[in-house]
Amino acid sequence: MDVKDFYYELPKELIAQDPLEDRSGSRLMVLDRDSGGICHRYFSDITEYLQPGDCLVINNTKVIPARLYGRKEGTDAPIELLLLKRIEQDVWETLVKPGKKAKAGTRILFGDGLLKGEVVDIAEEGNRRIRFTYDGIFEEILDKLGQMPLPPYITHPLKDKNRYQTVYARHDGSAAAPTAGLHFTPGLLREIRDKGVEVAEITLHVGLGTFRPVKEADVLLHHMHSEFFRIGEEAAGKINAAKADGRRVIAVGTTSTRTLEATADENGFLQAKSGWTDIFIYPGYRFRVIDGLITNFHLPESTLVMLVSALAGRENVLAAYGEAVKERYRFFSFGDAMLVI
Predict the structure, then answer these.
(1) N or C end: fewer C-beta atoms under 10 angstroms in the chain?
(2) Number of structural domains, the chain?
């Protein structure tokens, strides 16, 4: 399977740089995954496509201000650091720029020494494991010194950091937002629940592995980085009941999808559990849990386009993306949405 099979042309001006004032005011493309048929709506119309008894699964992870700017102790050289995942209490796997200045034993100062880090190991693909020392509570210090880790294709400063969080974000730990959820408002969620749709909350802390470019020409050689997930008893019960009754399970985002598909048994049933997953979903995959997907428009040749193609068919998805370009949809994290059903 060639990575080029998932390429499409995207004019740069269609990459959304700022979130809309009204979260639910985004456009919504509805894609019939069997026929390939397309309908153009707005996200606030999503309730028309959800049925009483459906189980809507959302990822309640919360993005941390994971980007830190510091100075190398001794030389005062600038160093940029991105927290990827917590290994133990004060040890994080990080992405460091420039990496050549961060050899084992290197000490880095942040905020005039309010936070200090030492490189203790060099991990997979050159990532650094850094042990932090500080006085106080790490999360409070991070909130003071850190910045939201916006993707590199977003060049505009974020005026309100809460716009890179879902309204249901609860559990700190992500290096990127589960962006399909950014379209929901508290009012829209109430409307969905009032219609008789069950909402199940799970957690997957999004790492950069989800968005890492596929560098191998052969898609099957690509390896996903592992990400931490948690499914509680309540969520597992709601999803299992829906499956048992033949009701639809609709995932909000590729992160929710990957969590469900990684943990379900052959019949699509789940147990409450937590752990790590590096599941990679591409065409040919047989979905065990989800019947529909709410997602954004993703980068060409990305694992996310491959996941959507696995659900709706590569030809259907690329045709839909071509239609989205023609109709001037907004793409990527702050862009418009797609419902595959």
Answers:
(1) N
(2) 2
**CATH code of 79's domain:** 2.40.10.240
Tokens of 209: 């592995």
State how far the Cα of 323 lies from the Cα of 291, in Å rounded to an integer. 23
Question: Are both 49 and 182 inside the same structural domain?
Answer: yes
My answer on whether 223 and 91 are in the same domain is no
Q: How large is the C-alpha radius of gyration of the chain?
A: 20
Q: Which residues contact 224 (CB under 8 A, 6 or more apart)?
A: 209, 210, 212, 278, 279, 280, 303
* pLDDT single digits (tens) 144-183: 999 999 988 999 999 998 999 999 999 999 999 999 999 9
Q: Is residue 155 part of a domain?
A: no
pTM confidence score: 0.93
> Do strands 292-296 and 337-340 pair parallel, antiparallel, or not at all (unpaired)?
antiparallel
Let me know whether 262 and 300 are in one domain.
yes
Distance CA 129, CA 198 (A): 40
